[in-house]
Amino acid sequence: MAQQTQPNIILIYVDDMGVGDASYTGGTVQATPNIDRMAAGGRVYEQFYTASPVCSPSRVAVTTGMYPLRWDINTFLSSRKHNRLCDQSDYLSTEAPTIAKTLQTVGYKTGHFGKWHMGGGRDVEAPSIGEYGFDEYVSTWESPNPDPALTSTNWIWGPDDTVKRWDRTSYFVDRTLAFLKKNKGTPCYVNLWPDDPHSPWVSGPAELDDKKKGYFDLANLKPVLEDLDVQIGRLLHGLRVLGLEANTLVLFTSDNGPAPSFERIRTNGLRGVKNSLYEGGISMPFIAYWPGRIAAGGVDTDSIVSAIDLFPTLSRLGGAELPPEVRFDGEDFGKSLLSGETHKRQEKLFWEYGRRNPRFSIPKLEDERSPVLAVRDGDWKCFSSFDGTELELYNLSTDPNETTNLAKENRELAERLQKEMLNWFEQNNESEI
Predict the structure, then answer these.
(1) Separation of CA 38 from chain center
(2) What pLDDT, on the 0 to 100 scale, is given for residue 213?
(3) Residue 1 lies in a domain
(4) 395 and 335 in one domain?
(5) How far is the first Cα of the chain from the last one, in angstroms, to the nearest whole number?
């Protein structure tokens, strides 16, 4: 058998995890020794962004390498009525390029194990996960292919599920390791997408009697984070047992910020939560772990990278050419990953979320609610409303918690960035407000 030269790639994409939920960042919510060891053994990026502060569009962005509004998805996908009210499609089009499809062209076996939430569930008939380039898949209720072991009721989880809510991440890790073992010797790409630590937090059978009481308490979050960390440790141990560790790139990040933040404990003081474009809603933990290829102990404080960058980066690391007919929004930062050099971002990063109407989930606390548009340009981050009445400007190098609006003192810069945000939205939006 010829030696495998292309790396296995595992993208661990956890759900609603704030930067303060991992103790390697200095977070105090819960000790996460296995995630910390992964960080110490790999490279940490401190300025890594998701492309949306909520699940469905963030997953579309990481899957396609494009801003999600280009695929007409701007908030969490739900019923057809909800999706119409939010001016969005019911599911990600199968015409979209995906990392999985691209890596299949160069011989990769592909698997998706965990949450999908890019279409399916409720009253939506969506294409199978296989149509997006996955050879094998196991998913939850919010998908076109719900696993019966996880979906005894027509909701996110139920007390009669064969695989209990608190055992799901373990189940997804088991399926990932089984997939890698079955395809050993062939390069594999795997989405390991747990729905932890998304609420409701249920860590054992005793809590089922409480119904909703305590499901959203900080005390119940802690054991969920503890088990998530244990399962990450099981995954890394399993790679060693299979003899795959040296040829497997493991990436760890989250889809969006936490909800709630418990007075910003879960964001390490950053302003913003899930559904907010302030830093706490979009600035994510990010670890790249590849023993022998990525130097241990690296902490990148300068590179500005995004989930939209993963498509071009991972495709080229796997030896695949990007589809030439596609205009991607992301940048390849693979050289930075492997060399430890700073990635010099060529393009600004843009966001859109909220559209300021009751159909969108927005933070309850006024101070956490951001304007609907945002852009990151070097150290500067600017916000605007569609009508231009809201304009905020922050220098993240001196004010990472976004406390002091400098728009008046830097009017020319703020107005230039505001114009660029409005133009970006107009050029990329697939639906009318």
Answers:
(1) 18
(2) 63
(3) no
(4) no
(5) 56
Overall average pLDDT of the 286-303 stretch: 97
Q: State how far the alpha carbon of 348 is from the alpha carbons of 181, 235, 331, 375, in Å.
A: 41, 35, 11, 7
- Is pLDDT at 259 greater than 50 in this prediction? yes
Tell me how far apart the alpha carbons of residues 120 and 142 are, in angstroms, rounded to a whole number. 6
Interatomic CA distance for residues 303 and 332, integer angstroms: 12
Distance CA 425, CA 87 (A): 14
CATH number for the domain harbouring residue 369: 3.30.1120.10
Last residue of a domain, one of 291, 307, 339: 339
- Asked if 54 and 274 count as a contact pair (C-beta separation under 8 A), the reply is yes
pLDDT surpassing 70 at residue 208: no
* Whether pTM exceeds 0.70: yes
Do 90 and 191 reside in the same domain of the chain?
Answer: yes
Task: Count other C-beta atoms under 10 Å from residue 405's C-beta.
Answer: 15
Name the residue among 161, 172, 320 with its Cα closest to residue 232.
Answer: 172
**The domain containing residue 382 runs over which residues?**
349-428
**Residue 433: predicted pLDDT:** 38
Residue appearing with tokens 């001016």: 87
Q: In sequence order, what are the beta bridge partners of 49?
A: 283, 306
Rg of the chain over Cα atoms, rounded to whole angstroms, equals 20
Per the CB < 8 A criterion, the answer to whether 30 and 251 are in contact is no
